[in-house]
Model the fold of this input.
Amino acid sequence: MLSIPRGGTVATYAQIARLLNTSPPRAAGRLASANKLPVIVPCHRVIKSDGSLGGYSVSDTYVKSRLLMMEGVSISNGKVPKQYMVSSTVLVKNFRELLNHVSQGMVI
Done:
């Protein structure tokens, strides 16, 4: 979830599951729902593949939608348009950078 760029982008549960080499996407949803640090680990940026919001670890989807809108993501009829979804290439690149920082002992 830290791999999702700030400022108007989201990723799907399926993308996160692929990134973590796990299946099904529900596993990524369980991971997001267990997030105890939602201000630091932005689980609100993870949505369903159909663009609907899914759940939110802290509150209901109203809070999730407001956080996304504050970051510049539009929501129409309860769904995020595809234009806001981060590419898997960017997600993988960011994930590798995070792993590199962690392996060097840097605090993220």
Remarks:
- The chain has a mean pLDDT of 90.
- The two ends are 12 Å apart (CA to CA).
- The longest helix spans residues 88-103.
